[in-house]
Specification:
With 753 residues, this protein is of the alpha/beta class. It contains 17 helices and 36 strands. The two termini are 20 Å apart. Bound molecules: 2-acetamido-2-deoxy-beta-D-glucopyranose (7 copies).
Length: 753
Amino acid sequence: MGFVNGVPLRHLFFLVSCLLLALRAESTSSLIRRTAYMVHMDTSLMPKAFKDHHTWYSSTIDSLKFNNSGFENYQSSSPSLIYAYDHALSGFCALFSLQELQDLKKSVGFISAFKDSSFTLHTTHTPEFLSLNPSTGLWPASNYGEDVIVGVIDSGVWPESESFKDNGMSPKLPKKWKGMCVEGQSFNSSLCNAKLIGVSMNSARDTRGHGTYTASIAAGNYVAGANFFGYASGIAKGIAPRARLAVYKVSWNEGRYVYDAAAAIDQAIADGVDIISMSLSRPKNVPLQRDLLAKATFGAMANGVLVSSSAGNKGTDGEILQNGYPWVLTVTAGTTDRWYTGTLALENGLSITGWTLFIGNISNYRSLPLVYEKRRFMCDRALWEIPIGIIICNGYLPLSHQIQNIAQYRVWGAVFIANKSISSEIENTQHTIPCPCMIISSRDALALLEYVESTNSPLARMTFHQTVEGIKPAPIVSANALRGPSLLFPGILKPDVLAPGTLVLAAWPSKLKMEKGWRTFYSRYNILSGTSMACPHASGVAALLKGAHPEWSPSGIRSAIMTTANPLDNTHSPIKDNMNNLAASPLAMGAGQIQPNEALDPGLIYDATPQDYVNLLCSMNFTTEEISSFTRSRNHNCSTPSSDFNYPAFVVSRHDNVTPIVQKFQRTVTNVGEGAATYKARVTYPEGSTVEVLPGELIFRKKYEKQSYNVTISHKGNNDGEISFGALIWVEQNGNRAVRSPIVISPAIYPRE
Ligand SMILES: *[C@@H]1O[C@H](CO)[C@@H](O)[C@H](O)[C@H]1NC(C)=O
Ligand SMILES: *[C@@H]1O[C@H](CO)[C@@H](O)[C@H](O)[C@H]1NC(C)=O
Ligand SMILES: *[C@@H]1O[C@H](CO)[C@@H](O)[C@H](O)[C@H]1NC(C)=O
Ligand SMILES: *[C@@H]1O[C@H](CO)[C@@H](O)[C@H](O)[C@H]1NC(C)=O
Ligand SMILES: *[C@@H]1O[C@H](CO)[C@@H](O)[C@H](O)[C@H]1NC(C)=O
Ligand SMILES: *[C@@H]1O[C@H](CO)[C@@H](O)[C@H](O)[C@H]1NC(C)=O
Ligand SMILES: *[C@@H]1O[C@H](CO)[C@@H](O)[C@H](O)[C@H]1NC(C)=O
């Protein structure tokens, strides 16, 4: 057991940049050298024929099509639009070749164009990816989480990080706060402030980085000029940038960790935190009755504190979803729409965009010879000497092995050729190694090798530090995140939701040595991936919701997050699972991608009281003593045991795959919208199922009114053990709220890798 994910950058996910999509399309058009430009346009000159700026920009770009006369060998496609601005700026960002840029300058309305480096990209871009913005929605409604206290249970904190400064924060601490800033070894209590309001006993000094990183995602303050070796530069901020942080360091000594974590949860409750963020895994193979973490998190729920935890990653935590407690929010990881690219410019004028693996300090590399060995063994084994130039790696070993091998040497540069798709390669490889290195597609590699063989002294130049946003599709569920159901409670959907967990930039202890291949170095920020990174995003959203709706219970907050989650990606198609490139099932992504602004106003919530959770425990044949160890009272009431928990999801658990099954559910929803409302049921049917909802219409006359309904799901059975899934959506009449609950027919033997 241990922290879910952590420093290793093994968990890399499928991302398709708009660039690379454009490049892979139809022709090998990627081989025109294109650079990202921010183009300013005079919108008053927009021809009337266009209905909006976006179509105008697209049309302007399209008109440059097929005019790359220099590259007959490589048919050219259109330069690609990365994104269009309409509010803060007027203009767009797109990739252009020099020729296209010249042509663009003749276009109507053109004002100016600057290279990508001249505009600011936002660090910890994930708040923008989640549509958090200062003008409307959850940020202003919650005052950015002001006076909500987030307890982070992790490896401690690096208090000197700028993410934990208290600029702009009220010095008056929330009244409910009863905790302390406990002094410890290399942790002077003067290091706490109005942002970092408390740390636990012992020394909370973070010597691993994980805690600093997760705390800054959940509630880091604004920091201008953050970046990781030039990537992702911009203003770093947490999801709840004005929330207060209390940090509880838990021990790393094996075998003691669960006790420490349970103690930390206990302390956090006593201190008065509102939300607990816990990117760590439960002990494996411990029955629930003896699981301290289960009991501590149950206690948090009973005290009105929502615990947000990570689903866990394959490799670190085994194959079974870990934190599947019904009383916590379980978060899995997906990609964002941001990627870090590099360019390999061949001396013949062609240019290839790759996926950067580079960390270092050189933004523009000079032209170097391309080193290619026909027998293809070079990157598979020890290098006897370091070739002067950029090594072309297309060995016989899996790419991850080649990368690991090359990372041991101080090479001048390397280009790794993906065997299948870059996406599937990148899943299993370290994405940052200490050399100017990139992965290119096998399609682009053909042109590269053609060039290399066409000349005696092939030369190329690498350029890094290109951060690209607007990548589609996104999100995609990480292949490395653990899948549900939770074996503890197979009838409760887990994970609950998907949140950004891929290549997220966040704070890092500046004096913590990082080791990558041959190199050790230091950085104030780091880019990591995993469900550990997803969890604090959801914790931050929960903190904002708590700020906006202090009266909501932990179950209410979770319900709002789940029923407003989006099952579609940014191309409006079902979110894909990187494990198989098919539509992700709720056992992979829960209800879908969190949507903070929608969660602010969910319409209806599926609430649950601590007694409802007791009823669930009572249905599990535990002894009175065992149940008492959760409720901390011998007087718990087991008169109405029920495994049909008021959860915003429906899971039909099959005992075998062939026999038809009928399962009934009863749910109660609370109207949290203002005033009267009517909702009608709409069902998308899981394959092979019928779903009956009674009544099909719910009429609420006032706020906080409750209504119950019944659902009967029948599944005819199938042989293949496939997961079938759908949804029940309560659609507001004469309004635009939609309260969505996933339906899953969970196979008896669910797929494992
Ligand atoms: C295409 O390129 C040629 C040669 O550079 C140039 O004269 C012409 O104006 C361009 N066409 C358009 C539509 O911009
Ligand atoms: C803590 O820091 C303050 C201010 O920097 C200093 O005066 C004090 O001596 C320090 N205390 C310890 C125990 O180091
Ligand atoms: C980056 O390069 C500069 C100048 O060569 C050097 O002073 C600095 O230490 C380097 N930084 C890192 C992190 O390697
Ligand atoms: C490349 O992919 C093929 C087909 O999937 C596989 O047989 C081969 O082992 C792979 N080669 C490497 C170097 O991974
Ligand atoms: C509880 O015990 C009863 C009787 O022994 C059994 O029928 C039932 O399946 C058990 N329930 C669970 C959840 O184990
Ligand atoms: C236990 O719960 C039931 C149902 O809610 C209630 O009727 C009963 O009075 C409770 N018993 C005790 C001892 O509180
Ligand atoms: C739902 O089911 C319960 C128990 O089966 C029943 O008592 C109740 O009347 C049903 N409600 C509706 C609206 O059908």
